[in-house]
Amino acid sequence: MARQSDEAFFWMLFSAGGVIAAILIPVHLFLFGLAFPLGWLPAPDYERLMSLVHMPLVRVYLFVFCSLPLFHWAHRFRYTLYDGLKVKHLNEVIFALCYGGAVAGTVLAAYLTWTIA
Amino acid sequence: MADKIILEVARYSPEQDTKPCFATYEVPVHKEWVVLDALNYIKDKVDGSLTYRWSCRMGICGSCGMMVNGEPKLTCATFLSSYAHNGNKIRVEPLRYFPVVRDLVTELSDFLVKLKKVKPWLIRKDTVPLSQGEFLQTPEQLDYYKQFSMCINCTLCYSACPVVGLDPKFVGPAAIALAQRYNLDSRDQGAVERIAVLAHPEGIWGCTFVGECTKVCPKHVDPAGAIQQYKLNAVLDWLTSFLMPRGHNSQDVKP
Amino acid sequence: MRQEIVKAAPAYTEFHPRWYRAPVSVYWWLGQWRYLKFILRELSSLFVASFVVITLLQVRALRNGPEAYSRFQHWLQSPWMIALNLVSFLFVVFHTITWFNLAPRAMPIWVRGKRLPEFLVAAPNYAIWLVASVVIAWFVLR
């Protein structure tokens, strides 16, 4: 029974992260990954971005933006490895790597957004 | 349209072969012939030993499912004319992921055991005397589960689902959709009894929403949707049990 | 090999060695477009994760001061990063579209005894996506 509840919990994180990733990542990626480096749009300077991250709400936003999509990745990538490579026998290792990565990223996000201001 | 079509049919004789091979047959094409008609032609006129299942030839019995050019199809509803553009060649194989008994006949007891495990029948906690009459249901209550009740157990969805092939223990699309058909029925009280099989790593959590089960379903059942809906309910259920450890209603999702 | 397949099957079919069980190839998803599309959809999560890592590096660069941040900006301008972000962008948009289109199947909405058509359930997702993107772009570019 415990394992079933775990699956529900991980699936909840997966879908919450999926929603966040679907709505927020494309615009972030377009601006910071393409438009600013390629000079399509004027990039905000350091002071402007710092004034943004000084707002507590922006830091909470950044934390959620980083954490939940990592759990989305952990779940999806775990199953892609199981099915796409037929390596279900490595279940525990894959599980530890995926969720370990997501937890590490979440801790890092918490530390960075907490200490930046 | 050409008047002949080439059928490549998988043949497997358990007494003689270690693996299936293909036999090629030339079949005349009549207007509005389906793949099943072509197979019947072969059996009647060319090779009487060809073995396959069929019964109603009108998409109701669900026994003539086969792989047609790599896609799970009811052969009684798959017209030869739709393959005229494909070099006039049709490859017919037994449904994927099932053990093959002979030629195009698959072994279904695996599916039947899984189906029985989810208890696809009305379960009542109370015993109401017959004299009280029927359990009444409004048209709206019927609509709520009707889509999932259209399943004819043809097992095309199992052949479309890679998880079925990769994990033989996976309960599978049709069985979960039929469980959900009863969970959503206003007369049923058995949702709690189905949880152990459904909310399990080999039940709904095994599904990765490939979605092909829904695409191949000849009755538009949408098993993939049924599974995701159950997942969402399982999460809400988990949250409720977390917030209110006592007195929540597991998977009771009726209108 | 044969032994392995028999073991993988449920117990009650174990004693029928004459039934033919086709092994499932590791490359089952390569042959047909519909399955390849599924694997690509799932792999979009890799690009979601890689962009989160880039964002974490960006926050770290901001935290380390103006010089660190300008180094980070230079790094993003390298051809490799542009290429990665271009591919990532396509995958992430693919994720968004498939996610929104599949959502109505998991969340049927019933209004007065009738199930809402799927596009009516999906449409608000697209509206939210558009509004959120505009608001974020406005915030950053202001």
Oligomeric composition of the shown chains: heterotrimer
Strand content of chain C: under 5%
Q: What is the 3D form of chain C?
A: flat
CA-CA gap between termini of chain C: 64 Å
Question: In terms of structural class, how would the helical and strand content of chain C be classed?
Answer: mainly alpha
Total number of helical segments of chain B?
9
Largest interface: A-C, 53 and 49 residues
Radius of gyration computed on alpha carbons of chain B: 21 Å
Helix content range of chain B: 25-40%
> Largest sheet of chain B, order of strands side by side?
2-1-5-3-4
Second CATH tier, the architecture of chain C: Up-down Bundle
Number of domains of chain B: 2
- How many E strands of chain C? 2
Mean pLDDT of chain B: 92
Total strand segments of chain B: 7
Report the portion of residues of chain B in β strands: 5-15%
Give the CATH H-level superfamily of the largest domain in chain B.
Answer: Alpha-helical ferredoxin
List the secondary-structure elements of chain C in sequence, H or E. HHHHEEH
Provide an overview of this structure:
The complex is a heterotrimer of chains A (117), B (255) and C (142). Chain A has 4 helices and no strands. The longest helix of chain A is centred in the first third of the chain and has 34 residues. In chain A, 40% of the residues are buried. Chain B folds into 2 domains: 103 residues, Beta-grasp domain (Ubiquitin-like (UB roll)); 135 residues, Fumarate Reductase Iron-sulfur Protein, Chain B, domain 2 (Orthogonal Bundle). Chain B has 9 helices and 7 strands, in the order E-E-H-E-E-E-E-E-H-H-H-H-H-H-H-H. A 5-stranded mixed β-sheet of chain B has the order 2-1-5-3-4. In chain B, helix 2 packs parallel to helix 6 and helix 6 crosses helix 9. The radius of gyration of chain C is 24 Å and the shape is flat. The N terminus of chain C is likely disordered. In chain C, a hairpin with a 2-residue loop joins strand 1 and strand 2. Classes of the chains: A mainly alpha (117), B alpha+beta (255), C mainly alpha (142). Chains in contact: A-B, A-C, B-C.
